[in-house]
Structures are given as structure tokens and as C-alpha cells.
Amino acid sequence: VQLVESGGGSVQSGGSLRLSCAASGGTYSPYCMGWFRQAPGKGREGVASVEPDGTTHYADSLKGRFTISKIAVNTLNLQMNNLQPDDTATYYCAADWGLYGTLSLQTSRYNNWGQGTRVTVTD
Description:
The protein is mostly beta strands. The chain has no helices and 11 strands. The chain has strands at residues 2-6, 9-12, 17-24, 32-38, 44-50, 56-58, 66-72, 75-80, 89-96, 112-113, 117-122. The strands form 2 sheets. Strands 2, 4, 5, 6, 9, 10 and 11 form a 7-stranded mixed sheet that branches. The chain has a 4-stranded antiparallel sheet with strand order 1-3-8-7, with no helix packed on it. Strand 5 (44-50) and strand 6 (56-58) form a beta hairpin. The radius of gyration is 13 Å and the shape is globular.
């Protein structure tokens, strides 16, 4: 599966951004997709994921501000509202098969990654 993210940029605190991820290739079998982020000097962490049946999962700290949606079979969005400087990071899209529940937010479970898109939030 090839994944390409878009929509990153720079925004002031309190602003919004919407990231998109386009997937291509892979088999016909539906897969789980997720968003992850990596801030400078920190490890990569799960943000949100969506299972093939549409079930979504979020990092507890981001619930209410971020919304993940699969708008097409191979297109994933992440709506980010009320962004704060701590949200500054490179955001990655990932996809893989057979992931459910809390596993779908674990970075190590994914073998297919996009190149990332940078999000910068300033005061």
C-alpha cells in the first residue's frame, strides 16, 4: 500500500487544519488506517484510527478536538480543531490489515507508512 499525506502547514493557536491521506495499491481486502504524529525529539504516537467497519479510536488526550474520517475506500481525513503549540509535529498516515481496538493506535503494528506532512502551530 502506498500512502500520500497532504494538508499540513502552519497555523496559529486555536486554528484548524485538515489532513488527507490517499492510499493506492495493496489488495482488495479492507485495511485499518490511522494517523500518527511525531514531535521534534519525541517518539511517534497514535492519534486516531479507523477500522474497516468504520469504528474509530482516538488518543484520549485528543478526543473532542480531532476527528478521523474515511471519506472514500482509499481516502482518510483528519480534521484538527483548536490546535495548540503542543500539536506541532510531523503527521503520518499508516495502513495495515488485521488491526482492531487499541492495537490500531500502536505504531509498531503498522508496516505501511506515508512520508508525513508537517504541522506547525504558533502562539
